[in-house]
Amino acid sequence: MDFVDLLTQTAQNSLPRVDPAIEARKVLDTYAEWNAERAPFKPGDLVVARPYTIYSRPLKGQVSVVMEVLSKPIVDERQESGSCQFGLSLDVIVGCYGDHGSFTLFHQSSRYLEPYTGPVEPAEPRQ
Predict the structure, then answer these.
(1) Is the peptide bond before 73 cis (omega within 30 degrees of 0)?
(2) Domain-wise residue ranges, the chain
(3) Which residue from 40, 90, 116, 120 could staple onto 46, CB 3.0 to 4.6 Å apart?
């Protein structure tokens, strides 16, 4: 056994063992927490998609503005029951700039959004 093999073996033996079931439980608990809490958005709030969101329009990391909070959510039943989008409650309308620079509106589920906390440049005054 050469020095590199010995060093590798020592490092592997000294690393703490992580139980995959415990790690999986932490991730599932985080998802359950996100699903349970919906931020009370109002028109004008800046939002982004939550991390690890599959159903995401606007795109992850793209800052959007809440245009409207629907009093009666639209339930998307077009998907098959095995889809993660089946029965999705679309309860907010958000707007963002699309690929071609046009402002686009999307119906979205607030459970997939979180408040944007990054820097915000002041808007230019209208003439």
Answers:
(1) no
(2) 3-115
(3) 116
How many C-beta neighbours within 10 Å does residue 78 have? 8
What residues have CB less than 8 Å from 88, skipping those under 6 apart? Answer: 55, 75, 76, 79, 109
Over residues 52-81, the pLDDT tens digits come to 766 666 676 788 999 999 989 888 777 676
Q: Alpha-carbon distance 58 to 112, whole Å? A: 11
For residue 93, give the DSSP letter: E
Nearest to 66 by CA among 88, 47, 89, 51: 47
Kindly report, residue by residue over 18-39, the tens digit of the pLDDT. 677 888 888 788 777 766 666 6
Interatomic CA distance for residues 53 and 55, integer angstroms: 6
Q: If we measure between CA atoms, which residue out of 109, 4, 5 comes closest to residue 58?
A: 109
Q: What is the pTM of this model?
A: 0.63
**How does DSSP classify residue 52?**
T
The CATH-assigned architecture of domain 3-115 is Roll (2.30)
- Cα–Cα distance, 102 to 15 (Å, whole number): 51
Question: Are 94 and 66 contacting, i.e. CB atoms less than 8 angstroms apart?
Answer: yes
